[in-house]
Write a structure and sequence with these properties.
CATH superfamily of the largest domain: PAS domain
Number of strands: 8
CATH class of the largest domain: Alpha Beta
CATH topology of the largest domain: Beta-Lactamase
Number of domains: 2
Number of helices: 7
Largest sheet: 6 strands, antiparallel
Distance between the termini: 18 Å
Order of helices and strands: HEEHHHHEEHEHEEE
Structural class: alpha+beta
Radius of gyration: 25 Å
CATH architecture of the largest domain: 2-Layer Sandwich
Helix content: 25-40%
């Protein structure tokens, strides 16, 4: 496994997944008519594609507002003679867009790196292709002490870190909520070897990665 600079944060441009278009259900685009009653008993007949009704329902999840409140607000913004359905599509899309931006910030590489640096015990982040993406100072201290390294430069060449469980298999096992995997690991450098155990959990990241917390080393 490659050993990166501890403070290095790598960002990648997200690629459009063609499967995302293939997985659109035909029913998503099917227009559905609904009679919405707003405050004061105002009744409006609105035809929207199913996906937009779903989006508006998601927007209201956990809110004290009703779909009638949202329709009233949209109607007040566009006026009586404008396209209310179009405004509701914009409302749903804009909300999803903002929500996505918030989630991308939460699951950013910078936040993940901060999470690892804040951990007081040895911890690392491993990518699906078996690379060490991030590690913290306690992890580095463990390696220097247990592998008896003369200087940090020795880790730049000949360092190997191997899990007893394949990373892609661990990710598959961790796909369910609240799951954890315990596995052994072996670190070798300059003819010296360190074995131990770590708990693996899914990393809060847009990419498939795992966080490894050393529990014995």
């Amino acid at each position: 496994m490659a050993f990166p600079d501890r403070h290095l944060v790598q960002t990648e441009q997200a690629e459009l997944n063609p499967a995302a278009i293939q997985h659109v259900e035909e029913s998503d685009a099917e227009p559905k008519f609904r009679a919405i009653i707003g405050r004061g008993g105002a009744r409006r007949g609105i035809r929207l594609e199913s996906v937009y009704w779903d989006g508006l329902s998601w927007l209201l999840n956990g809110s004290r507002q009703s779909i009638g409140d949202v329709v009233d607000q949209a109607a007040a913004q566009v006026g009586e003679h404008s396209n209310l359905a179009s405004m509701l599509r914009v409302v749903a899309f804009r909300w999803m867009w903002r929500r996505l931006a918030q989630m991308e910030n939460v699951y950013s590489a910078e936040n993940l790196n901060t999470l690892i640096q804040a951990c007081p015990t040895p911890a690392i982040v491993l990518t699906k292709d078996k690379k060490i993406q991030f590690f913290n100072e306690p992890f580095m201290t463990m390696l220097k002490q247990r592998l008896v390294l003369g200087n940090i430069a020795q880790l730049s060449s000949g360092f190997r870190f191997v899990l007893d469980t394949q990373v892609d298999e661990a990710i598959l096992s961790l796909s369910g909520k609240g799951k954890m995997v315990t596995t052994g690991f072996t670190a070798t450098c300059a003819g010296k070897q360190l074995t131990g155990q770590m708990n693996l959990a899914m990393a809060p990241s847009q990419k498939q990665m795992v966080i490894g917390y050393v529990i014995r080393g």
